[in-house]
Amino acid sequence: MADIYEINTPSFVVDLDKLKENLELLRSVADETKSKILLAQKAYSCFDTYPLIAEYLDGTTASGIYEARLGFEEFKKEVHIFSPAYKAEDMEEIVKIAKHIVFNSFSQMALYAKLAKENGCEIALRINPECSTQTEHEIYDPCSRGSRLGVRIAEFEKALESKEGKELYYMLDGLHFHTLCEQNSDDLYTTLQAVKQKFGKYLPDMKWLNFGGGHHITRKDYDVELLKKCIVEMRDDYDLSIYLEPGEAVVLNAGYLVTTVLDVVEADIPVAILDTSAACHMPDVIEMPYRPPLKDSALPDEKPYTYRLAGPTCLAGDVIGEYSFDKALKAGDKLVFEDMALYTMVKTNTFNGMPLPDINVMENGECRLIKSFSYEDFKMRLS
Question: Is 26 a member of any domain?
Fold first, then answer.
């Protein structure tokens, strides 16, 4: 056991105390609304903590066969899966481990719905309510123009004009939508108005409705009471079971990435080169982009010493952001990035042969190493 500043770097650290705090809130929402909340593994798949999470949540969601297998093997509760398109060879295994399968089109249902039903699976169709509530980050907006995610109402009703389409429709157990990204419940409310307007007349034929993810339930300013109202109204008005599948909300502010300063160089501004990489260890920093929170720092020039923090790869744009500090940085200093449990461990890569960060869990301020990577992990992915 070690203090967070004593562990090897780079290292991810999952804060079990904060994780439990998040889980308790999510469980209370599920209990009070008689809904089910699932872990979206695409955001967080540290399965060492699955036994703890399974004490509070009802199951997992998967975006592919590997995540489905992980949820089945390690979480041991309900497994839901959605993919824009499935491979036939994967579906043979999926129907044995994921008992809730969401399709993205009637054509995918035509291929696999019968097989799913024969294996005792419940099936759903993802719908696109064409209601974009995001003002930024189109890359994360499933309702953006040209989105491949979900069936629009025009396509939905066109399918029902055919005998085959009607037969597929009556095989459905549920509908699924996912339109949010790190958003509050007012945007869910707006989305539900669109769902009711466009698909409301079909909801009485369903057993359940999945609200998808993107609900920032554990954020301090999140309107939990409005969320509960949304769930209860849809549940009671349409006699539906309601599912939610948050990822970020499960581990929000429950993780860290500890790194060491390797060198400080003078460019147009002072640059601290770290042993972690935006490109390899937190790619959303570049992809989204965003500036991750850093313990004991401030915005540029708010404190006496301002630095650009960058990774050691050859990529010129491997830059995390600019931060200011009370003291000058020097080689050997350790820094702690915050809110690093979500969309980090699941998205790491070994570009430039960068070592993968260790994974630790922390409880009562003490860290325990649960996974360390080596050269073999880099080599085994290549040929």
Answer: no
